[in-house]
Specification:
By secondary structure, the chain is α/β, with parallel strands linked by helices. The chain has 15 helices and 19 strands.
Length: about 500
Amino acid sequence: MTQFSILTQPILTTTAEAIIVPLPVSKGSFPNSKPFHSIDDALGKALTDLYNRKIFTGKKNEIHAVHTLGKLNSRVVICVGVGETKTLTPEVLRHAAGVASRKLQELRATSAVWLLETLPTPEKWVQALVEGTFMGSYEYTDCRSSVETTREGLKSLEFALPKASTAATAALRSGGIVGQAVNTARTLANTPANLLTPTHVLDWAKDQFKKSSGVTLEVIDAKKAKSLGMGLFLGVAQGSVEPPYMLVMRYLPVKGQKPVALVGKGVTFDSGGISIKPSAKMSDMKGDMSGAAAVLATMVAVTQLKPKKNIIAIVGLTENMPSGTAYRPSDVLTAMNGKTVEITNTDAEGRLVLGDALCYVVKEGAKEIVDLATLTGACSVALGDVAAAILGNDQALVDRWLDISTTTGERLWQLPLYEEYLDYLKSDTADLVNASEGRLAGTCTGGKFLEQFVNGTPWVHLDIASMMHYSSTSGYVVKGMSGVGVRNLVGYILGPANAVVRQKKSTRKGTK
């Protein structure tokens, strides 16, 4: 486990194996930083020479290691590009930290220090750098028969600042909690479906949320789900031999305060059911529980952050499998709120799982709701892999989430919930179909379906299917499941003080 701390001693006194220097694009001059120039002078102007010969330019995520050859206590100086100073953001620094963390692994460095005085307002970037370090150095190795043992890993990481402050110390802690939570969500989603069944998730949660954690668990098994009328959820589950569970987590530190609700889709493997998916990339469907993974990991972070906010979280855990007992196209299922749903596509199962979960938190008296789900392939068609979709019935709540995302770096783009989309979901047999048989507005109709189960409670839906999986490694991004949603959820829980308030209100219209 890496230990994080603040360094206020002169940088040349450090005994850390590596000094990491974030550097902007040069405009013919170099950072006005005495520590930077002290390192450069000790190295015979080697850093200046990198700029002058255009070996290093300072563009984002550029990296170059300079071996000190005994001229410093540290054995290497790592220069990391952060782009133009005027475009510097926490997200830029997260990516820079991810690149640097992998370079430290490559160099087998066990200790390092970031020289932050090359940046404006240096303590402003501490949390982002800690988050990026965790996320960039992530690797899923649980299923390997052997893992390289000569790599010790980073044991200590310091941040050189002009002076220590309570804000910087708090940023270290928060960054560590958030970074670890993202990696927890990644590990859950990366774990193969035979090793992470609904029962395994339940056991994992019981281990995480002990009595001392402040989070209490309620397990709704199939029998109890039936008594509650969760016909949509049970319909999805009936094709699998694995038992399903609705797992409810409650964190209630404030007496008399209505809770906010976090709802996650937890389909631990999605074959598509009778409407079976193509075999290509079906293996990625072990990550179809990424919404639940984000909620579970966030609740672990809650046990450490201990916000003064009541939270109820629920994840619907099941597989979606084809079998002789599986639900079929043309079946009609009844939700917890009494609405009936004709099944037109068994691969539109996530909204069924969420439908009953949403009904449950409404019944529990949630004052506002957010759900996260890898709901639609259409989201990837619309947004690529660089943003998730947000839809909601309350524009003020949607705007708050958009504000939060500007700080966390987890991009959201609002799509509409026009009333006409409900026409796409009309059934000749039941109240609704679970999926329009046309290919129009897939993400929006999925959201419109979910809206039918929130009973007017302020609600936002995050379709994270577009960002579930990374196909390559860069910055803090690591190939595999992404852990998307955790940073936004933590930002939401901690409140508006952690969000950047935009100068202009959203001009997007048409949420109804």
